[in-house]
Amino acid sequence: MRSMCLLLALLGYLNLPAVRAEEADAFYKGKTITLYIGYSAGGGYDLYARLLARHLGDSIPGKPNIVPENMPGAGSLKVAKFISSVAARDGTTLGTFARGMPFYPLLFTPEFDGKKLSYIGSITSDTSVCITWQTSKIKSWSDITSKPSIFGGEGKGSDPDIFANLIKDQFKLDLKLVTGYPGTADITLAMERGELDGLCGISLSTINSAHSDWLKNKKINIIVQAALKIDPQIPTTPSLVDLAVTPTQKQVINLAIAPQGVARPFAAPPDIPADRLKTLRQAFNKTMKDKSFLEDAEKQKLDVNPMTGEEIAKIVSDLYETPKEVVDIAANAMGAR
Fold this sequence. Notes:
By secondary structure, the protein is α/β, with parallel strands linked by helices. The chain contains 16 helices and eleven strands. The protein has two domains: 16-124 and 263-323, 3-Layer(aba) Sandwich (D-Maltodextrin-Binding Protein, domain 2); 128-259, D-Maltodextrin-Binding Protein, domain 2. It has a six-stranded mixed β-sheet with strand order 2-1-3-10-4-11, with helices on both faces. A five-stranded mixed β-sheet has the order 7-6-8-5-9. Strand 1 (32-37), helix 3 (44-59) and strand 2 (65-70) form a beta-alpha-beta unit. Helix 3 crosses helix 13 (274-287), helix 3 (44-59) packs antiparallel against helix 14 (291-299) and helix 12 packs across helix 16 (324-333). The longest helix is centred in the first third of the chain and has 16 residues, at 44-59. The protein is globular. The chain starts with a helix and ends with a helix.
């Protein structure tokens, strides 16, 4: 009798994935998953979110509908707070927000806990760059370290302000930040008019998808790149990581640019059932290899270089272990405090 029980238990264990798939199928069948987007329609985060929404449901058992919904506000902080505290914790709510948002509580005010979000994955990693317009006297990193420059920003906590403040502080540049522009489109118009030299914190993927003529017609100079590793598209452009000299400077810059690895993050609320988190992560990973998804992304000129939810969670967890003194230096350098 004892042997029979053990055998039945073993057979049940071996069949566990099938049971879980059936449970997920039963839960998600006929359901709708709402994907909240932290920005208005038409921007990069919106394009990536709607791309995922068109395909993710096909990889989830039960094939639920995925409905994208824009919830702009405070540079996507509104969505991050909503997902963290208000949204249903049953696996029917997802959100996407700025790459730096998981680290917002570490550097700014702790309005939510970035470590507790249930990360699903990121469609691509990214490289932020500082650029200048073709008519600017600032055409290289050497120029920006030896000549005064004027860069545009959007406001405290935005990528253009963070990266301009960072390089000014850490490399003692004669850089003036003119902030308050509504968006990068307004900054680039000011660059074209000669009012500004350049812009920091713009994604290379955004340039590729929305402004490919800038590269093709050499309308911009790429001064420096901010990513954990050299981007193969711009192998000769200096990296902030490599330019850092002291150990503290390296830690500060690593803390600032780590979000580039989670460029287009998607997350569910904290504490959703473990089996549903696993289902969503597996569905995301499967979608990243799906032929129709990849064809759709290629048609829109959207890069696909995915990162798993587990990888994002580890990056976030590791960065929250950064020594407080380094966090304070980084926060001040980026204008966060």
